[in-house]
Amino acid sequence: MAVLNVKAFKKAKCWHISIFSKNKYLEIRNDLLHRCR
C-alpha cells in the first residue's frame, strides 16, 4: 500500500505519513514529511 499519488498524499493527513515512515517510499517523499512536520 505504498503506491499513492501526490493528490492522494495531500488528501491524506500528516499522520498518514507515520504509516509510510516504515516504508522506504517515505524517503522519496521526504519533502512532504518536512512540509507536514
UniProtKB/TrEMBL annotation:
Protein name listed in UniProt: Uncharacterized protein
